[in-house]
Write a structure and sequence with these properties.
Strand content: 15-25%
Structural class: alpha+beta
Strand order of the largest sheet: 2-1-5-4-3
CATH class of the largest domain: Alpha Beta
Number of strands: 12
CATH superfamily of the largest domain: Histidine kinase-like ATPase, C-terminal domain
Order of helices and strands: HEEHHHEEEHHEHEEHEEHHEE
Largest sheet: 5 strands, antiparallel
CATH architecture of the largest domain: 2-Layer Sandwich
Shape: elongated
Distance between the termini: 62 Å
Number of domains: 3
Length: about 350
């Protein structure tokens, strides 16, 4: 009795029960069976196609050739670079059937794990660098106060003020890091509590009014009576605080009065928040990197004004969690405009 047809049906059923992409290759190196996840990954692949035309990966093809020749199971890495870079662990194993030995290929994507590991290493390097300077400053002043300046009241007052500023800088950095970590952990959970975005903007503007006056900046708000969107109120407050705070801090000009315009409007099925300043502006080459962690267009000015380099990274992640879009436009000498589009439903 010929068991081949029965085995073929069983193999197809087993492959379709797998969650990971999987396929079977015959002794002629042509595809026999592809499960649904594999067809989704390789929509152009069809049973009967040569494996070499389906997977353009020399490592995978060589492993399949060795397995079909009687070799043991192998694990190799498959990298797909278009349309975006993706990385898979490919497991190539022999499958002995009545008709002969077939080759079973299963894929497990590791792109996200590798990206997280890369981000973690970059994160640790950046954090250690950002904390090293203020920490060294505090330790240096402590040693000075314990030694040469022990009996100098003027130096003590001056050094303690600097130490306080550096400690606050480290505290802001840690607070921003914790906020960023929390938002990233909840990125897959879209917030849906009703929030009045107009109330959020006016609340933030009231809190930043004193800082605006100190920087000779007037806050101009153009908004409807209310604008309700689904969201997380605390995160939206943080979003507006960062955008308006940056506009006040970096959009102000020395010995000159300027405005920061905050506009709220409806654009189709989205709420539109626009923050516009008339400061020095941002160089074009800096625009694509502004939302990266610890990236500063003007590192010296940012640190001098207490910036952590994480504000716009927080903005980007908050907008993304709310399933919105962030746009940045600027020309040197003409100020900058930050625009967040957030779904109304």
């Amino acid at each position: 009795m010929d068991n081949a047809p029965h085995e073929g049906v069983l193999c197809a059923a087993l492959l379709n029960a797998l969650r990971d992409p999987a396929l079977l290759v015959g002794a002629d190196t042509r595809l026999r069976v592809l499960n649904a996840p594999m067809r989704a990954l390789l929509p152009a692949a069809r049973a009967g196609d040569p494996l070499a035309l389906t997977l353009r990966s020399p490592d995978v093809l060589d492993a399949a050739t060795r397995v079909l020749a009687g070799g043991p199971a192998e694990g190799v890495i498959w990298r797909e670079r278009v349309p975006v870079e993706r990385v898979f662990d490919a497991h190539v194993a022999p499958l002995a059937l009545a008709e002969g030995t077939l080759c079973m290929l299963t894929l497990r994507e590791t792109t996200d794990a590798l990206r997280v590991e890369r981000m973690r290493s970059d994160f640790i390097a950046n954090v250690s660098h950002e904390l090293r300077t203020p920490l060294a400053s505090v330790l240096g002043f402590v040693e000075t106060l314990q030694g040469p300046a022990r009996e100098d009241p003027i130096a003590r007052v001056r050094f303690l003020a600097i130490m306080r500023d550096q400690a606050r800088r480290m505290q802001r950095l840690i607070d921003d890091l914790l906020s960023l970590s929390r938002i990233e952990q909840q990125a897959h959970l879209r917030p849906n509590a009703p929030v009045d975005l107009v109330g959020v903007v006016r609340h933030v503007a009231d809190g930043l009014d004193l800082i605006a006056q100190e920087n000779r900046v007037s806050l101009k708000i153009d908004a409807p009576p209310s604008l309700i969107i689904p969201g997380d109120r605390d995160e939206l407050i943080r979003l507006v605080e960062n955008l308006v705070g940056n506009a006040i801090t970096y959009g102000s000009l020395p010995d000159q009065h300027t405005n920061v315009e905050i506009t709220l409007s409806v654009q189709g099925d989205q709420a539109r928040l626009k923050v516009r300043d008339y400061g020095r502006g941002i160089a074009r080459e800096d625009l694509p990197r502004l939302t990266e962690r610890f990236y500063r267009a003007d590192a010296g000015a940012s640190r001098a004004k207490g910036g952590t380099g994480l504000g716009l990274a927080l903005v980007k992640h908050i907008v993304a969690r709310h399933r919105g879009r962030l746009a940045i436009a600027s020309e040197p000498g003409e100020g900058a405009c930050f625009e967040a589009l957030l779904p109304k439903s």
